[in-house]
Automatic annotation (TrEMBL):
<keyword id="KW-0573">Peptidoglycan synthesis</keyword>
<feature type="binding site">
    <location>
        <begin position="153"/>
        <end position="154"/>
    </location>
    <ligand>
        <name>UDP-N-acetyl-alpha-D-muramoyl-L-alanyl-D-glutamate</name>
    </ligand>
</feature>
<protein>
    <recommendedName>
        <fullName>UDP-N-acetylmuramyl-tripeptide synthetase</fullName>
        <ecNumber>6.3.2.-</ecNumber>
    </recommendedName>
</protein>
<keyword id="KW-0547">Nucleotide-binding</keyword>
<dbReference type="InterPro" id="IPR036565">
    <property type="entry name" value="Mur-like_cat_sf"/>
</dbReference>
<dbReference type="Pfam" id="PF08245">
    <property type="entry name" value="Mur_ligase_M"/>
</dbReference>
<keyword id="KW-0963">Cytoplasm</keyword>
<dbReference type="InterPro" id="IPR000713">
    <property type="entry name" value="Mur_ligase_N"/>
</dbReference>
<comment type="pathway">
    <text>Cell wall biogenesis; peptidoglycan biosynthesis.</text>
</comment>
<feature type="domain" description="Mur ligase C-terminal">
    <location>
        <begin position="335"/>
        <end position="461"/>
    </location>
</feature>
<feature type="binding site">
    <location>
        <position position="180"/>
    </location>
    <ligand>
        <name>UDP-N-acetyl-alpha-D-muramoyl-L-alanyl-D-glutamate</name>
    </ligand>
</feature>
<feature type="modified residue" description="N6-carboxylysine">
    <location>
        <position position="220"/>
    </location>
</feature>
<dbReference type="Pfam" id="PF01225">
    <property type="entry name" value="Mur_ligase"/>
</dbReference>
<feature type="domain" description="Mur ligase central">
    <location>
        <begin position="109"/>
        <end position="312"/>
    </location>
</feature>
<feature type="binding site">
    <location>
        <begin position="111"/>
        <end position="117"/>
    </location>
    <ligand>
        <name>ATP</name>
    </ligand>
</feature>
<dbReference type="InterPro" id="IPR004101">
    <property type="entry name" value="Mur_ligase_C"/>
</dbReference>
<dbReference type="InterPro" id="IPR005761">
    <property type="entry name" value="UDP-N-AcMur-Glu-dNH2Pim_ligase"/>
</dbReference>
Length: 497
């Protein structure tokens, strides 16, 4: 890109050295700098990008954007000094990629729970009708079937613009993004203009970051500001009518609202819901008539997710028949009440639930069809050095299960004992074990299970690691549970080690 054009978008304090005529790329991570590119130094929470300038130069950077003095060979590299590099990259990133969000229908999904499932439902339904679609969030960036890993649910502003650009270049008609409150507050969505904003719910989570529920709710509402002002485009807000926070969200936007729900009046409302271990069916009342929905995913929470996805796609202008057809092929989102395939006499689910509300939803997904003779064994863990207030509330919610195993979920460098004792404080009965090592906790869950029982492993979901200390160790609840179950239930099982 022409350098003068690129930097015309930001206020500059001064420039040292000579700017090249053009630059090839832009990076905020020194490890991602390419020859002839720009490196923008970001002052992070843990490290300061200014300390990686030499690395960026060694990688071939031609221009450095900095807010503090940096020592470089000005014969080879130019330095653009700005007041605030966060602000600079928020402007440079969408400018560099030519505002790609304007080239597609952009759907943003926010809320404490349901973001991943709703986003992936929207994506699957679109693909089912042959539309090219991209989706990004906790599970990664899925561009027309190819999945790429991402660091965060909502990625940094540069990665976000790059992904949107890639989706637009691949001729996707729609991109759906999971939007986290961290992402909104930290400006990771600067330059992203959404057409449809979906809000699912707001329950206790991330209060270590936001401080209060009011701040957390306000952060979620920032998504509505991302709808932009281009009124020639169809714009809608989709709100959960059964969620008390939706009333406040509605006051934060002037765009038309489509509501969905089960318990209260809504534009998209489910009734006659039948929940079973193999799927869910219900009648959906919509502004254009009633439809029968059959889905392979389980639990009432997935009825809410389906309603949210339907309202968003209706807002986009999709035919109801196509939406209903698409809902019938939705697979469980990776790690969201995902049934682990096995012919052993156990029903095992892995779920990402790591907030009190999500735990309640996971348990309620199986209670309607759990037989009296079946035990529900529930394994929960919480992360170390994060939102400690939610720990006892999570354990209290988990107490509905017949047997609970309290453990850790990325303990980081917090001792097991403090995590477990804060969880134990919330337990409403004594039918539980507290085991810090997650692998041992998983094995214990299988050891206390009888044939026919149900086990839910909550917290890790799609993740295949456990962060202990500063190390990211490989870990899979499903793999450990299956191995243990083979040993316990399969006659003639031969130990391989
Ligand atoms: C607290 C927080 O938001 N941290 C985010 C932040 O980290 P940070 O400010 O510490 O940045 P850093 O990693 O120290 O790096 C600073 C700068 O140096 C650069 N650097 C770094 C190393 C190097 O060798 N070279 C280099 O140039 C980095 O690219 C960066 O530009 O910027 C990083 C890069 O964008 C994020 O990955 C990181 O998210 C961390 C991993 C995180 O845990 N975030 C959580 C709190 C989060 O954002 N969660 C939400 C919600 C999820 C949910 O809904 O459950 C999410 O959207 O994921």
């Amino acid at each position: 890109m022409d350098t003068e054009k690129l930097f015309s978008i930001i206020p500059i304090k001064n420039i040292k050295g000579v700017l090249p005529k053009s630059v090839t790329d832009i990076a905020v991570d020194s490890r991602a700098v390419s020859a002839g590119g720009v490196f923008v130094c970001i002052e992070g929470f843990t490290v300061d990008g200014h300390s990686f300038v030499q690395k960026a130069v060694d990688q071939g950077a031609r221009v450095i954007v900095a807010s503090k003095p940096v020592a470089v060979d000005l014969e080879k590299v130019a330095v653009v000094y700005v007041k605030n590099t966060d602000r600079a990259i928020a402007l440079l990133a969408p400018h560099f990629y030519q505002y790609p969000s304007k080239r597609m229908t952009m759907i943003g999904v926010t809320g404490t729970n349901g973001k991943t499932s709703v986003s992936n439902m929207i994506h699957t339904i679109l693909q089912h009708t042959g539309e090219r679609s991209a989706v990004t969030g906790t599970i990664g960036f899925n561009l027309d079937g190819t999945l790429m890993e991402t660091e965060n649910t909502t990625t940094d502003v540069l990665t976000t613009q790059k992904m949107i650009h890639q989706a637009a270049e691949a001729d996707c008609s729609t991109m759906t993004m999971e939007v986290s409150s961290h992402g909104l507050v930290e400006g990771r969505l600067a330059g992203t203009e959404f057409d449809i904003a979906v809000f699912t719910n707001l329950t206790h989570d991330h209060l270590d970051f936001h401080g209060t529920m009011d701040n957390y709710g306000h952060a979620k509402g920032l998504l509505f500001a991302q709808l932009g002002q281009d009124l020639s485009q169809r714009k809608f807000v989709v709100l959960n009518a059964d969620e008390p926070w939706s009333e406040r969200m509605e006051k934060m936007t002037s765009y038309p609202v489509l509501s969905y729900g089960i318990r209260r009046e809504a534009d998209f409302r489910a009734r006659d819901i039948v929940l079973s271990p193999d799927g869910t069916s219900f009648k959906m009342e919509t502004p254009v008539g009633d439809f029968t929905v059959r889905m392979n995913v389980i639990g009432e929470f997935n009825v809410y997710n389906a309603l949210a996805a339907t309202a968003a796609l209706f807002a986009k202008g999709m035919e109801m028949e196509d939406i209903i057809n698409g809902l019938s092929v939705i697979p469980a989102a990776k790690g969201r009440m995902e049934k682990v395939e096995t012919d052993l006499p156990l029903t095992i689910y892995v779920d990402y639930a790591h907030s009190p509300d999500a735990i309640e939803k996971a348990i309620n997904a199986v209670l309607p069809y759990k037989k009296a003779e079946q035990k529900l064994i529930f394994v929960i863990g919480t992360g170390g050095n994060r939102d400690r207030k939610k720990r006892p509330i999570m354990a209290e919610k988990a107490s509905i299960a017949d047997y609970v195993i309290l453990t850790t979920d990325d303990p980081r460098d917090e001792p097991y004992e403090s995590i477990l004792s804060e969880l134990e404080a919330g337990m409403a009965h004594k039918r539980y074990a507290a085991i810090g090592d997650r692998a041992e906790a998983v094995k214990h869950a299988v050891s206390v299970a009888d044939a026919g029982d149900i086990i839910i492993f909550a917290g890790k979901g799609h993740e295949d690691f456990q962060i202990v200390g500063h190390e990211k160790l490989p870990h899979s609840d499903a793999a450990i549970a299956l191995e243990e179950a083979e040993r316990k239930f399969r006659k003639g099982f031969i130990e391989t080690e």
